[in-house]
Design goal:
- The protein is of the alpha+beta class.
- Helix content is 51%, strand content 15%.
- Strand 2 and strand 3 form a beta hairpin.
- A four-stranded mixed beta sheet has the order 1-4-5-8, covered by helices on one side.
- The chain binds flavin-adenine dinucleotide.
- Flavin-adenine dinucleotide binds next to strand 1, strand 3 and helix 11.
């Protein structure tokens, strides 16, 4: 549906959409293939986007951010997705809607001034390190440890899959702070810290990937990395609950960039179908293809309305746990289906490495895995609708 017909968007939102789109057309699309080859984007892109006011839309004006409502973020995230490069949309959504969300949610004034404000300006790049090789979806079993030593903590352990890791200036890191809380392990002894990326004892290695090529992904080792106590985000051992809350906006952001990605894929395919002629007519004249495209457009529209409704709940300061999981599940599963069917409509040309369709296909595949897999989303949705699984009364 066009913005103009939607109850969620005003003329000001539409003008902002043109601004973001114009920026991307001028400053991203002409260079993106080069960044895909280099495996990273230039720091100046964060600075440019910071100057435009894009990096702090969901943050407080006091720290240099702000926008009149969450639908500016909706527009921005959709447009990041419409650029058609998931590495680009991944890097920038991790920066503003994932790593910085933790500072917003629980960071002290000191941390907000030292890290959040310059990251909103684009002078600092943020990364988020939750995932570990042995934990993955089972966040509560992370093993990277921070032990108190006088006025500081010392961190030991490893993280993987850290988006923006190599480019980052700081890493919001989830660690275990054992022996200090009511519980000895699990959810009750996880804390969050801001770690400077150039701290002595940090080693990083690039992780090569199937897609998302313009975004750097790092494995990070921490060996006796010293972090001042004031770099702790929020209360000791309260990290897991901050993560669960912040993951909701992370999932909504992931869903919105995926929605933009679906739009980009459908548009690329619409143009291809209009241009490719076989058997005396263009492909968009074949009923078999027309009906499948009609299904994809309809499903995309249904998902879009769920996402906008979720964004509306979020704007009303509710934390729509159920709808965030549903949104992430629905649109990312659909994105895979759209990418698969659209590649089919491109025939062998879509399979060629330099065809944008093949990049979209590779890039899209990650969306049902990153930021909470589809299986985890289904578990959460089942828990919120059916309740906890009950024991079989017939079992001993
Ligand atoms: C390119 C890239 C960028 C990323 N960026 C970041 C980042 O910036 N920061 C960060 O912290 N992480 C990041 N991640 C990590 C990402 O969030 C994890 O990959 C994801 O959470 C899944 O964890 P895992 O890969 O260890 O899979 P696993 O947890 O090992 O899951 C393997 C399979 O088991 C299934 N499974 C797991 N538990 C259940 C269950 N209870 N019931 C049924 N099935 C289950 C999963 O759904 C999946 O299909 C990134 C990953 C990639 C590849």
């Amino acid at each position: 549906m066009e913005d103009a017909k939607s109850p969620y968007f005003t003329a000001a939102h539409r003008a902002f959409r043109q601004k973001v789109r114009g920026f991307i057309e001028k400053n991203v699309l002409p260079f993106a293939e080069g960044w895909e080859t280099e495996g990273r984007m230039p720091r100046r892109l964060w600075e440019e986007m910071g100057r435009e006011g894009f990096l702090g839309l969901n943050h407080d004006a006091e720290f240099g951010g702000g926008s009149p409502d969450f639908f500016y973020s909706v527009v921005y995230l959709e447009e990041l997705g419409r650029a058609g490069y998931a590495g680009f949309r991944g890097a920038f959504s991790v920066h503003s809607y994932m790593a910085l969300e933790y500072l917003k949610a629980a960071g002290s004034d000191f941390l907000k001034r030292k890290y959040l404000a310059p990251a909103i300006e684009g002078r600092m790049i943020a990364a988020l390190a939750l995932t570990e090789r042995e934990s993955g979806s089972d966040m509560a079993s992370i093993a990277t440890e921070a032990l108190a030593h006088g006025a500081e903590y010392r961190i030991n352990g490893s993280k993987i899959f850290v988006t923006n890791g190599l480019l980052s200036d700081f890493i919001v890191t989830a660690v275990r702070t054992p022996g200090t809380g009511p519980g000895k392990g699990g959810k009750s002894s996880i804390s969050l810290f801001v770690v400077d990326s150039d701290s002595p004892g940090i080693e990083m290695r690039e992780m090569r990937k199937m897609g998302w090529h313009c975004s750097d992904t790092a494995e990070i080792h921490f060996q006796d990395v010293r972090v001042p106590r004031e770099n702790r985000i929020g209360n000791l051992n309260a990290g897991f609950f901050t993560i669960m809350k912040s993951l909701q906006v992370e999932r909504l952001a992931a869903a919105l960039v995926s929605l933009g990605g679906v739009d980009a894929c459908l548009e690329l395919t619409r143009k291809h179908l209009a241009a490719r002629a076989l058997f005396g007519k263009t492909l968009d004249g074949f009923q078999a293809i027309r009906h499948r495209m009609a299904d994809l457009y309809s499903q995309a529209e249904a998902a879009r309305q769920l996402l906008y409704h979720t964004a509306w709940l979020y704007e009303r300061k509710e934390t729509p746990f159920l709808e965030c999981s549903m949104s992430k599940l629905r649109i990312t599963e659909l994105a895979n289906q759209v990418a698969d069917e659209c590649l089919q409509f491109h025939g062998g040309h879509g399979y060629l490495a330099d065809n944008p369709m093949s990049r979209i296909y590779r890039d899209t595949r990650l969306a049902t895995i990153v930021g909470g897999t589809s299986e985890v989303m289904r578990e959460l949705i089942a828990e919120m609708t059916l309740g906890q699984p009950r024991l079989n009364p017939a079992s001993p």
